[in-house]
Amino acid sequence: MNASPDERPENVPLAAGTEPAEVIPVWRGVTAPPHADIRPIDSLPPPPPDPAWNGWDVLRIMLMFVVSFVLSFLAMLVFVPGSNLKSRFVRFGATPSLGILAQFLAYLLLLGYMYILVTKERGRPRFWDAIHWHWPANFGPFLAAGFALQIVFIFLERFLPFPKQTPFDELLQQRTALVLILMFAVTLGPLMEELFFRGFFYPVVARRFGMVAGVLATALPFGLMHAAQYGYSWASVLLVSIVGVVLGAVRAAKDSVAAGFILHIAYNGTITLMLLIATDGFRHLEKLNQ
Q1: Nearest to 80 by CA among 60, 62, 102, 61
Q2: d(Cα 194, Cα 115) in Å, to the nearest integer?
Q3: Least enclosed by CB within 10 Å: which of 118, 206, 215, 229?
Q4: Neighbouring C-beta atoms of residue 280, cutoff 10 Å
Q5: Structural domain span for residue 214
Q6: 16 pLDDT exceeds 70?
Q7: Domain-embedded: residue 110
Q8: Looking at the predicted structure, is the pLDDT value of residue 20 above 80?
Q9: Cβ neighbours around 41 below 10 Å, total
């Protein structure tokens, strides 16, 4: 049996006319072909950061949120009749449906900015994978949870000091505005709220301070975001913040933004369905005051 040059005793000469055999590197018991690029695991490039963005990027998204709203509301002024800018602002304030359409446009602009931030600036071409969208295999539990959460909160509202009249109640008296609001509540509204709070904001906090901190840190701003439509009632902020805790817990437990999105739609959709039934398909809005 021939020995390799490393194993051959130094005092045993090679046979005449022979050359030392090429040494084939062996790594973890696997023989590699000659000249193969064998690198240990420690020298491999590290995996990309998860999330790919940081806290400064979240602040940029918040700033873009404001900019998008300003631009969208200014764009809506084009469709408002008036001899000067002041008169157009007055008419705009008296037409809530235009404000809702402006919010639709602002959210679409913000969604585009989020996409560019992730895919272009942070080099993650698979946007939905980067934010951990991950559709759950079974929608049923999340739909049921959203429905149950809304029913429980409707019951709790009887025992909490809610204002008798809120800006949201006033909008319910205008059919066009009501339809637009309810469409927004089960489409772009929950989508953008889940993308920002549980898709972008939560992982930044959780990476640094842990999952519990991430859930709590996103819940209170989520509740405060909805304060204006309920007349800045502390009870409404409390209940919506609890919804935020539930949505954050689902995001943390299932590693899925989509799961929270489904629950969010079910939560909003429950009250939408109840309003639809109570007003006979929005034909009798006066029933809401009875």
Answers
A1: 102
A2: 14
A3: 229
A4: 10
A5: 133-290
A6: no
A7: no
A8: no
A9: 6
Is residue 285, in this structure, part of any structural domain at all?
yes
Model confidence pLDDT, tens digit, residues 244-257: 999 999 999 999 99
Let me know if residue 36 belongs to a domain: no
d(CA 182, CA 61) in angstroms, rounded, equals 25
CB–CB of 102/74 below 8 Å? no
**Three-state secondary structure readout of the chain:** CCCCCCCCCCCCCCCCCCCCCCCCCEECCEECCCCCCCCCHHHCCCCCCCCCCCHHHHHHHHHHHHHHHHHHHHHHHHHCCCCCHHHHHHHHHCCHHHHHHHHHHHHHHHHHHHHHHHHHHCCCCCHHHHCCCCCCCCCHHHHHHHHHHHHHHHHHHHHCCCCCCCHHHHHCCCHHHHHHHHHHHCCHHHHHHHHHHHHHHHHHHHHHHCHHHHHHHHHHHHHHHCCHHHCCCHHHHHHHHHHHHHHHHHHHHHCCHHHHHHHHHHHHHHHHHHHHHHCCCCCCHHHHHC
For residue 192, tell me if it sits in a domain.
yes
Q: What is the mean pLDDT of residues 117-139?
A: 96
Of 80-89, 107-116, 171-180, which has the strongest mean pLDDT? Answer: 107-116
Give the contacts of 26 (CB within 8 A, at least 6 positions apart). 32
Per the structure, the count of domains in the chain is: 1
Q: Is the pLDDT assigned to residue 27 strictly greater than 70?
A: no
Contact call for residues 256 and 247 (beta carbons, < 8 A): no
Nearest-angstrom CA–CA distance, 285 and 290? 10
Mean pLDDT of 123-149: 96
* Confidence label for 201 from pLDDT (cuts 50, 70 and 90): very high
Distance CA 168, CA 288 (A): 12
